[in-house]
């Protein structure tokens, strides 16, 4: 099993190092090869996604990704900025399905911004379409119209794009096996957007192939409210690129810290890129303060979805739970009565729990 390891910028190398340490403890004989990406890629070759890095990612069975971005590169043209690396990988590898679980560990219910009783036991999955919508639609740009500048972007989805992400959501709901009938809530803005009207029509049509999965629909503004009001009503949420970008970040804060949440971006064959949903946190980079658990849990998702190792994935997830039960916390999830540790110490604790 060949893994392309792309640490990236900021805290990326620190958190990736802990995930590698945990993966190495499993004894699976994984072949891991690192390459520069993002700002590190730009420094190495003048481009955020160097050709050699892209080739390594194409040849690998899965990609473990840290984070990209740094204010130092804000003055660069858009095509050269670090963030273009992740967009380029998604496009080149056809990574259209973004899985973002939001799970509240019992020990962290008190760390959420919401009351513990609202989030205790929360376990939802947001399935975000990743390669379409307003982020990629054409035409787009800034133009002068009779002396007035205007910016414009195009929200666009095709029927096949919607159908394939709906399938991922229905299949994921079946696999989750959380007790009771699996449920999918499709989120759109069909009352005002033609794109969303097509979205709702296609998702509803696809649902006839999954009669065991209950389908509901919700407008995105109501969903944003319901995630705060009653988040445990959801099982799987499926939505488009822009809505999913916003809602998944909202859901991340239900768990107490964005440093706890993994993610997967999959192609049609199950090959994926796995990364924490947080950014590079340049303010704490190099200080050993970052929470590596989202990256370690992303490695668990990689084992489950791309490498066919669900037992090993479960071992990692149980080890993380055991460490949290022991009271160890990085600064972002620290509360009274727990013990604060750094990045490497948290990684060591997960290895010890394994």
Overview of the structural elements:
By secondary structure, this protein is α/β, with parallel strands linked by helices. It folds into 2 domains: 1-100 and 261-354, 3-Layer(aba) Sandwich (Isopropylmalate Dehydrogenase); 123-254, Isopropylmalate Dehydrogenase. Helices cover 39% and strands 20% of the residues. It contains 12 helices and 14 strands. Strand 11 (262-266) and strand 12 form a beta hairpin. Helix 1 (12-25) packs across helix 10 (293-305), helix 8 packs parallel to helix 9 and helix 10 packs antiparallel against helix 11.
Defining key terms:
alpha/beta, Isopropylmalate Dehydrogenase, 354 residues, two-stranded antiparallel sheet, 39% helix
Mean of the pLDDT scores?
94
User: In whole angstroms, how far apart are the ends?
Assistant: 21 Å
What's the order of the H and E elements? EHEHHEHEHEEEHEHEHEHEEHHEEH
- CATH architecture heading of the largest domain: 3-Layer(aba) Sandwich
Count of discrete alpha- or pi-helical segments spanning 4 or more residues: 12
Beta strands, count: 14
Low-confidence stretches: none
CATH level 1 class label of the largest domain: Alpha Beta
Q: SS-based structural class?
A: alpha/beta
CATH topology of the largest domain: Isopropylmalate Dehydrogenase
Main pleated-sheet profile: 10 strands, mixed
CATH H level, superfamily name of the largest domain: Isopropylmalate Dehydrogenase
Number of domains: 2
Label the overall shape: globular
Range of strand content: 15-25%
* Radius of gyration, whole Å: 20 Å
Helix content: 25-40%
Query: How would you write the strand order of the largest sheet?
Result: 2-1-3-12-11-4-5-10-8-9
